[in-house]
Amino acid sequence: MSKKPAAAPTLHKVIMVGSGGVGKSALTLQFMYDEFVEDYEPTKADSYRKKVVLDGEEVQIDILDTAGQEDYAAIRDNYFRSGEGFLCVFSITEPESFDATQEFREQILRVKNDENIPFLLVGNKSDLADKRRVPLEACRDRARAWAVPYVETSAKTRDNVDKAFLMLIREMSRQKLGLPPAPSPAPARRPRCAPPCCCLS
Ligand SMILES: Nc1nc2c(ncn2[C@@H]2O[C@H](COP(=O)(O)OP(=O)(O)OP(=O)(O)O)[C@@H](O)[C@H]2O)c(=O)[nH]1
Ligand SMILES: [Mg+2]
User: Fold this and answer.
1) What is the predicted pLDDT for the residue at 91?
2) Which family does it belong to (predicted)?
3) How far is CA 78 from the centre of its chain?
4) Most informative mutation of 32, 40, 131 for ligand 1 (most atoms within 8 A of CB)
């Protein structure tokens, strides 16, 4: 008897959005390769693929790292259309980037036409606490108003980087299974497997 072929892992399409220079690429590269890039090189659009084990199931993540620079604003609609979940990033040191999250959110809701699209608000550069210019309460208030989770990350120290991606992917999985949104997941860290697969749970 021939063996049944293994089912292909579920594919989740994540889009990184946010103003230029907030750390979208730095977060992506930390998550993908465990490295921090000090130099700032504005992105046009880069895509990445990684397998992770989430709650015992292997899933595949496609990450599209988009351009924050305004020169590329016109092509965002097309990128957003293909997204199933969004990491909306700002820098806690730059109020303008926090203000811009409002526009990104509106654009995503307009393009996706779905209020419940998996979405995470991410305050990056948490290592620069002494340069903080966006109060934590304002960040939490915005996330509460949108009914989305809020996470502070540092692409430099890797703080909460896995957690941010994990929370979003878990939300995407739940939505694909037709489950209601998770209350407030705060998963414990487990040891990571060897690349290209990593365990998130
Ligand atoms: N201290 C600190 N610096 C960071 C952090 N994340 C990113 N940076 C720095 O901020 C600069 C911009 O980071 P990028 O990741 O390139 O920003 P981006 O959001 O991808 O920018 P665009 O591609 O133009 O949209 C770089 O010099 C990074 O090294 C962080 O968490 N902490
Ligand atoms: Mg970039």
Assistant:
1) 98
2) Belongs to the small GTPase superfamily. Ras family.
3) 18
4) 40
Q: What count of Cα atoms within 13 Å lies in the side-chain half-sphere of residue 64?
A: 19
Least distant ligand from the CA of 123: 1
Q: How far apart are CA 169 and CA 177, in angstroms?
A: 12
Angle between helices 136-146 and 95-112 (to 10 degrees): 10
Helix pair 161-176, 24-33: axis angle to 10 deg: 90
Cα 93 off chain centre by: 19
Both tokens of 175, joined, read: 């939505």
CATH of span 10-176: 3.40.50.300
DSSP at 23: S
- Summarised one tens digit per residue, pLDDT across range 72-129 is 777 888 899 999 999 999 999 999 999 999 999 999 999 999 999 999 999 999 999 9
Which long-range CB contacts under 8 A does 173-179 form with residues at least 24 apart?
173/10, 173/12, 173/54, 173/55, 173/59, 175/116, 175/118, 176/10
- Is 22's C-beta closer than 6 angstroms to any atom of ligand 1? yes
